[in-house]
Amino acid sequence: MPELPEVEAVCRRLRKDAVGSRIIAARVMRPIQTKPQTPAHVAKRVANHTIDAVRRRGKNILVDLSDGLTLHVHPRMTGNLYVIADHRLRPVAARAWFELQDGRAMIYEDRRVLGRIQVHPTSEMEERLEKTGVEPLEPGFTEETLIALARKSGQPVKVFLMDQRHLAGLGNIYAAEALFEAKINPRRVARQLSRARLKRLHAAIVGVLERAVQSACIAYMHPDRFQEAEWFPVEVYDRAGERCRRCSKTIRRIEQGGRSTYFCPGCQT
After folding, report:
1. Buried/exposed 245-265: b ≥16 CB within 10 Å, e otherwise
2. pLDDT value of residue 12
3. Backbone region of residue 10 per phi and psi (left: phi > 0; alpha: psi in -120 to 50; beta: other values)
4. Of 46, 53, 98, 165, which one is least surrounded by beta carbons within 10 A?
5. Residue 244 per-residue DSSP state
6. How far is 55 from 61, CA to CA, in rounded Å?
7. C-alpha torsion angle, residues 5, 60, 87, 98 (rounded to 10)
8. What is the distance between the alpha carbons of residues 9 and 237, in angstroms, rounded to a whole number?
9. What pLDDT score was predicted for residue 231?
């Protein structure tokens, strides 16, 4: 699943390629992706509107349109949003396209058809995303913010980090990498971690995500080959059975919250 760095890379490219363009026509192919709205409703609402801004909230892409509308895209597992030079050259996996006035198109590509596309008044978006947690790359995410959130949670720290009600956009890959960098066992209970460990975790989260955003932006230079963590040098994620580069212990895989967790039993205590 695309995480914060990948979605941020998508938004940065869209800001460069799409902001200021006018949508003259749109089509959404799969009704399941717009529920409870209909594809016709989405297409009609966005037509003849200008793309004023592109924002990210957690793993959500918010395309702000003129006249107070926002196109809300949640890419889920395989979604991607980008601009092509000619609307007639749409890829096979395009599930929606938004023809622009100069002949280009903003394409929503989603091989597994798991993403969601809706349109709402911009004024409603904050309320619709009110359960989305603090942005870990925004100034509001301080050491004390993380400590306060952790003190309220009896979850294992890895599950706590992936709970979007706490931190917005942090997913499986970068949660595992941040815990490795902070030398914290993913099974430890969040509220039982010391202040010193939580401060170390805060620094690791910010550092890992900043590096991952840079790598994701490089990967997004080729949208048809876009893949999460494509250029990011992972230390533990998906490396079960391999040697830790730091201590040479064997990296382990366990299941937490229905997801795979990777960690080094030597480094992470």
Report:
1. eeeeeebbeeebeeeebbbbe
2. 94
3. alpha
4. 165
5. P
6. 6
7. -160
8. 21
9. 64
> Which amino acids are annotated catalytic?
2-3, 59, 259
**φ and ψ at 254, to 5 degrees?**
-130, 170
Terminal CA-CA length for the chain: 28
- In a 10 Å sphere around its CB, with 0-12 CB exposed, 13-18 middle and 19+ buried, how is residue 154 labelled? exposed
DSSP letter string over 138-190? STT--HHHHHHHHHT--SBHHHHHH-TTTBSS--HHHHHHHHHHHT--TTSBG
Q: Is residue 68 helix, strand or coil? A: coil
Taking a C-beta distance cutoff of 8 angstroms, is the pair 205, 164 a contact? no
Q: How far apart, in whole angstroms, are the C-alpha atoms of residue 269 and residue 247?
A: 13
Rounded CA separation 39/165 (Å): 29
Domains of the chain: 4-128 (3.20.190.10), 143-263 (1.10.8.50)
**Alpha-carbon distance 236 to 268, whole Å?**
11
Q: Please check whether residue 96 is in contact with residue 32, taking contact to mean a CB–CB distance below 8 angstroms.
A: no
Secondary structure (DSSP) of 228-255: TTSS---SSTT-TTSBPTTT-PBPEEEE
pLDDT digits (tens, 9 = 90+) for 75-116: 998 899 999 999 999 999 999 999 999 999 999 999 899 999
What's the token pair of residue 55?
């924002």
Query: Which amino acid makes up residue 107?
Result: I
Q: How many CB atoms lie within 10 A of CB 183?
A: 16
Q: How many CB atoms lie within 10 A of CB 158?
A: 25
Query: How much is the pTM?
Result: 0.90
Q: Tell me the C-alpha distance between 156 and 257, whole Å.
A: 9
